[in-house]
Amino acid sequence: MRVGDIGEFGLIDRWMNSLRCTDTRCIVGIGDDGAVLQTSPGSVLVATCDMMVEGIHFKMSFAEPRQIGMKAMAINLSDLAAMNASPLAALVSVGLNPSLDVEFVDRLYEGISLMADKYRCPLVGGDTVRSPAAVLVDMFLLGEAPRGDITLRSGARPGDLVLVTGSLGSSAAGLDILLLRETRGQGAQSPGVSASVADAVIRAHLEPTPRLTEAGAIAAAGGATSAIDISDGLANEVNHIAKMSGVGITVDADLVPVSEPAIQVARALGKDPLAYALFGGEDYELCFTAQPSVADRISRAVLDATGTAVTHIGWVSSGSGCWLLREGRREVLEPAAYDHFRRDAGGGSGGNQV
Amino acid sequence: MRVGDIGEFGLIDRWMNSLRCTDTRCIVGIGDDGAVLQTSPGSVLVATCDMMVEGIHFKMSFAEPRQIGMKAMAINLSDLAAMNASPLAALVSVGLNPSLDVEFVDRLYEGISLMADKYRCPLVGGDTVRSPAAVLVDMFLLGEAPRGDITLRSGARPGDLVLVTGSLGSSAAGLDILLLRETRGQGAQSPGVSASVADAVIRAHLEPTPRLTEAGAIAAAGGATSAIDISDGLANEVNHIAKMSGVGITVDADLVPVSEPAIQVARALGKDPLAYALFGGEDYELCFTAQPSVADRISRAVLDATGTAVTHIGWVSSGSGCWLLREGRREVLEPAAYDHFRRDAGGGSGGNQV
Q: What is the CATH number of the domain that holds A238?
């Protein structure tokens, strides 16, 4: 049996049980957005990592090196945001081909430093190695939080509402535009969408914003019962919450906030805009659950504090699995997750999985 | 200018200053074996990572997958040992080719788990991604210690003695045997050395032992003033200590404990056994400095507690740079470091460098 036959999630399932952490200092091990470790009484440490491989997670022809560095930080900061932890420090392992221009490395670190400064997550170390083929960027982030403040994937309860920050689908639409331009030649116009729409979705794909401030506002306004960041698509993330919480989740298609630029790209390409939101991934918005009594307060507080909208998209029930309400029908919402072993370009990296 | 032109250490120097950490929580950033972070009052966190790339740091034809997993843990645990930190938790990012047999992954994690259990450093998470070419294993380790217990590269003072645990050179000799067997065909005998000698040096190369227990015994018996683990060769490591401490170091060639199997391999291959110890690297012994008044006590304590010999090999003086006393002459001891961008097979990964 080959790795490609069972895929990323097959490998995770294969190892999830045998690697279950029994150490008393390990509060949460594999399976959430980050590991949660007890260090001092009352406060915990969150550790997370995401590896980006050239040709799988990014293309040198799509992203500037500065953007690769920024995104490596952003996708890990997003994991901390999902858990409501404050950034503490970052380490980065970089694999470089000797033929690469030093300028590339300068710009890569510039992107990392920019995010490190912006989110107060200093780069404190790492490793630089030779890579015979692809460029590799593996980022490790540490966050900290009072123990009671940590939000897990497993806390959703029947009766909770399901909410998301911002709007979804832009990142996948941006990847589509980039792939299309590659096929048709770099100078080609993006078909049927304005330059500003194309720029907006491409920027969403290449320079995602980790929702750390939003996470803080959610916590301050009453708190999420569970949370996850949207790295592999909304469908995948609600399935993670449902599975880890032992609940069912119903998403109303009409409520999902698909971004306006994503709708325009989808129309131009003859695609379903909702599919971008549900299965596209890499939006790095937060999907979370909250008790109905605090949901409105959270939405207002996040909007006031950050300008980011929070939208109610569904409900938590007893049972197990996820469903989508669409045009009067209720259908099973499969994860349809991006699997790094089965597709070739783009693709996020979700959670703390081994 | 290409990455290969300035090499790993050139890149580190290029970024060392601009990435110098100014955050108050960051006690030690880039440049030591690990980063030291202040989390709670009185205790610190040590974070370190080392990436291993197939074809650069290991060959699938040399190492069993279980040994690759073990070594990924060992070289990071060795960084914690150098700083006298206790293992807390590990995360691992793994890049896999889809054509790889799942059995390979099983054995890789088996090796990681084995070391995680042995050194009480639970694997709490990571990331699994597709790698188009080489297998990648990037390990991230967290350790903890009372703040005053941490040993840095920068603490050596004139008058201190320089000491090493165990014996040196076996790992480089083992790599030579492996390379020779590859050239001559797998079934070939190792020339001029017994099977047991060949096995011993190969095992030293593939299954290094992190000196965590030895580090504890050193600390308990009076403590090192500075320490580093020997990943890139003794010459490289004493230069690191000298540079970081602002001192000079003299090593007496006659005192360097070259391992008996390494001597036999060197003789059989017509090589200089001392070169294995000075420039071979990957022995993962500890090189440390201590005040003369406690050096004997440390040596006895480590031997009693662990069975590992500690050998006095040199002296710390004022000035800067390193020298080797050999056959009555005093010559400059250049780092002659292994550089991942300039050589092709084997090779360790030293310290927390970015």
A: 3.90.650.10
Residue A128 is nearest to which of B25, B52, B353, comparing CB atoms?
B353
How far apart are alpha carbons B78 and B75 in whole angstroms? Answer: 5
Identify which of A34, A104, A124 has the shortest CB distance to residue B30.
A124
d(CA B200, CA B198): 5
What whole-number distance in Å separates Cα of residue A123 and Cα of residue A92?
8
CB neighbour list of residue A13: distance below 8 Å, 6 or more residues apart = none
For the sheet containing A26-28, what is the strand order?
A: A26-28, A35-40, A43-53, A136-146, A86-96, A123-130
Pure H helices in chain B: 3-16, 65-83, 102-118, 170-184, 195-206, 212-220, 234-245, 260-269, 273-275, 292-306
Pairwise CA distance, residues B146 & B151, whole Å? 11
Judged by a CB distance cut-off of 8 A, whether residue B49 touches chain A is yes
Report residues of chain B scoring pLDDT below 70: 16-18, 186-190, 337-354
More confident residue, A10 or B303: B303
The pLDDT score that the predictor gives to residue A298 is 98
Cβ–Cβ below 8 Å for B101 and A349 = no
Q: Residue B66 has which token pair?
A: 């279980």
Q: Is A342 inside any structural domain? A: no
DSSP category for residue A31: T
Q: Which residue of B has its CA nearest to A350?
A: B127
Tell me which residue range forms the domain holding A306.
153-332
A101 touches chain B (CB under 8 A): yes
Instruction: Confirm or reject contact between B146 and chain A (CB < 8 A).
Output: no
Q: Are residues B172 and B128 in the same domain?
A: no
Does the CA dihedral B190-B194-B195-B200 come out positive or negative? negative
Search chain B and give the residue with CA nearest A121.
Answer: B23
Question: Within 10 Å of residue A30's Cβ, how many Cβ atoms?
Answer: 22
Which distant-in-sequence residues (6+ apart) come within 8 Å of A337 by Cβ? Answer: A9, A232, A233, A235, A236, A350
Q: Residue A92 sits in a domain of what CATH number?
A: 3.30.1330.10
pLDDT digits (tens, 9 = 90+) for A332-354: 999 875 554 544 333 444 666 65
pTM across the whole model = 0.92
